[in-house]
What we know:
Blueprint: E1 6-9, H1 25-38, E2 42-46, H2 52-61, E3 70-76, H3 88-95, E4 100-106, H4 109-116, H5 120-136, E5 140-146, H6 148-154, H7 156-168, E6 173-178, H8 185-196, H9 199-204, E7 215-219, H10 226-235, E8 240-243, H11 257-267, H12 281-292, E9 309-310, H13 313-321, E10 339-340, H14 348-355, H15 367-381, H16 390-401, E11 409-418, E12 427-436, E13 439-447, H17 450-462, E14 473-481, E15 492-499, E16 504-511, H18 514-538
Parallel strand pairs: 1-2, 1-8, 2-3, 3-4, 4-5, 5-6, 6-7, 7-8, 9-10
Antiparallel strand pairs: 11-12, 12-13, 14-15, 15-16
Amino acid sequence: MTAQVEVLDTTLRDGAQGEGISFSVQDKLELTRALDELGIALIEAGNPGSNPKDLEFFRRARELPLENARLCAFGATRKKGLPCGEDPQLKSLLDADTETVVIFGKSWDLHVTEILRTSLKENLDMIAETVAFLKAEGRRVIYDAEHFFDGWLGNAEYALASVRAAAESGADTIVLCDTNGGAFPDTVKDGLRAAEETAALAAALSPLEGLGGVVGIHAHNDGGLAAANSIAALQSGARHVQGTLLGFGERCGNTCLAALIPSVELKLGMSCLPQGKLRRLSEISRAVAEIANVALPEEMPYVGSHAFSHKAGMHADGILKLRRSFEHIDPALVGNDRHFLMSEVGGRSAIAERAKKIDPAVTRDHPVIAALAARLKELEAAGWAFDGADGSFELLVRRELGRHKPLFEILAYRVGSEHPTGEAIACSHAWVKVWVDGQDEIAAAEGNGPVNALDGALRRALFRFYPELAKVRLEDFKVRVIDGTAATAAKVRVLIQSTDGQDHWSTVGVSEDIIDASRAALVDSIEYKLIGDIERKFKVYL
Length: 542
C-alpha cells in the first residue's frame, strides 16, 4: 500500500506571523476554502485564546461546508501553577469546538528554566495534564514538541521525557519541532529515530486512519533546510508533516508545502493529497498568494512561473527532443506550464516552439525563424529583453509572420505632473487621442503618477470600442536603466505585468524617454489582451 502522509497547513496561524502578512477574518475563511479544495487534511486555523479575530473566525468557520479538511485550534500547555480546568486559554480551545486541537510544550530544558522560569518536573506535569485534560474532553490531540531538536542535542534525556509525557497521557500525534530552524537533516533523522525508539512512545501512539504510529515534523527555514529536514523526517518514519502552503511564516518561514508535497508524492511515492488534487497545486498556490496579498515567488519550485522556464538554446533543444532531459517532472502534474524564454541565447528551436502558438505550420527551418532570431538579437543589443515579456514577444512574432493587424493607433498624447506647494497632493494628468476603425476618440485622466495617468487615459479612450478593457489592471511596473554611464540621458527599459483577473501577461518598452517606454509597453499590453480575446471568441487567428 502507498504510505499515507497527513499534511497540516498552518498558513492561518504560523503563516500569519510572517512579516508583512495580515489576514482579516474574511481572508482566513477564503484561505480555508482554498486549502480544502486542494485536499489538505488539517488546517491549523489560529489561537482562539490569543485574540478576538481568531475567536470570530472559529465561530464563522462552523458554517463552512468543508469536504477534505478539518480545522484545528492551537494553543499552549496549561500555565504553571494553574489547574487545567481554570486555565482560560484551554477553555478557549474547547470553545473553538474543533475535533482536533494542537498544543505545544517545551522540550528544551533551557526554555523551561530560563523562559518559563519553572522546574523541569513542573513542565512535564504541564504537558501530561494538558494532554489528559483535552483527551478527557473528547478531542484528538496533536502535541507539538517545541524546540525538540535543540533540546535533544542539549539534553537528550529530558527532550525524550517531554514527548514521553505527552504520549503516555494520550496524545494522538507527536510532532517534533525545529522551532529555531537551524537543524540539519542528519540531526532530524537521528532525533526522530530516538523518539520513535522510546518504548513508551511507540506503545502509546495508536494507529490513526491507517497512518500507523503517528510521529510528525514541524520545520522552520532559518537554515534554508526546512524542506530537506521534513523529507529526512518522512524517510525516517514520520507520517505527519506541517508547513505553510507558500512557505511564509515566522522569521524565514516554514516548510513550503507547495514545494514539499510534489516531492513527497512524485519522488518518495507517498500520498499527501486526495487523488487528482496535485494538478491543482499551482492554481491554488496562486489563489493563496492573491488572498495573502503577496507575489507568488517566480522561482518557487514546482508552482513558480520560472519552475519550467528554459532560456539556453541547448536546454530548449533538449526539451523539445526529450522532455525529461532538462525537466525533473512533467509540469502538468502540478498544474504548471512550460515556458521557452526568448533571448539572444535562446536558439531557433525555442523560437519556433513559441511561434507555433500563432502559426502551427512554423518549423525550426522556416525562413521567418531565422529572421526572428536576427531581429531578437538586434533588439536585445538595443536594450530590449523578452525573456520576461511574453506578450511583447508574441506581438513581435506576429509582425514577422505578417499576422499583426493593429487594433488601434495613438495619434497623439500628452502627460504632465503638478507638484503644488503646501499640503496639496501632487498629481499627474494625461490626455490621449486614438484612432480605431475609422473613428477617433479623445480622453483624459488623472493618476498618482504619469504612467498611471497615461494608462487611465488610454483605456478610457478605448473603452467605447473595447469595453472588456475594464477588467484589465497593472500588477507590476518595473524600470531598469540600461546604460548607467549615460546618467539621466540613458535608455530605460520598462516592464509591465498585467492581468484581467484570470490571465497574466508581461510586456516591455525601451526608450530614452521613460514615458515613451511606458507607452510602448502599455500599447503592447492592451493589444495582447484584445487579440487574445478576439481569437478565443471567434476561434480564428488574426
